[in-house]
C-alpha cells in the first residue's frame, strides 16, 4: 500500500544490475551519501531516483573501496548512529 504522495519505483522500471552507472548517477549517489549517510539506503535510492536500495548499497561499497568516495562518509555515519 502506498501513502498519498509517495511513489515507489518498481524493479522493472530500474536499470539492470548489470547496467553501468552513469556519471550523473555517481554524482547523485555521492551527494545522497553525504546527505543521508552510509547505510540509509532507502533515502539514498530515492535521492538517486534510478536505482534501488541494494544497487545503491553495492555501488557505494565499490566507490568506497576504490577511494572514489571518502571513507569519512562511512565513519561519520557510524559515529552518528552509534554515538
- Biggest sheet details: none
Question: Tally the helices: what do you get?
Answer: 4
Determine the N-to-C terminus distance. Answer: 34 Å
Q: Number of domains in the coordinates?
A: 1
**DSSP strand count:** 0
User: Given the C-alpha coordinates, what overall shape results?
Assistant: globular
Reading off the top of the CATH hierarchy, the class is best stated as Mainly Alpha
Content of β-strand: under 5%
Structural class by SSE content: mainly alpha
Could you give the order of the helices and strands? HHHH
Q: Please give the CATH architecture.
A: Orthogonal Bundle
| Overall pLDDT confidence | 78
CATH topology: Arc Repressor Mutant, subunit A
Q: Provide the gyration radius in Å.
A: 13 Å
Description:
The model is unreliable at 78-83 (pLDDT under 50). This protein has a single domain, classed as Arc Repressor Mutant, subunit A, CATH 1.10.10. Helix content is 57%, strand content 0%. The longest helix has 14 residues, at 23-36. The protein starts with 22 loop residues before the first helix and ends with a helix. The protein contains 4 helices and no strands. With 83 residues, the chain is mostly helical. The protein has helices at 23-36, 41-48, 53-65, 71-82.
Q: Mind sketching the topology for me?
A:
Layout: H1 23-36, H2 41-48, H3 53-65, H4 71-82
Question: How is this structure best summarized?
Answer:
The chain has 83 residues and is an all-alpha fold. It has helices at residues 23-36, 41-48, 53-65, 71-82. The longest helix has 14 residues, at 23-36.
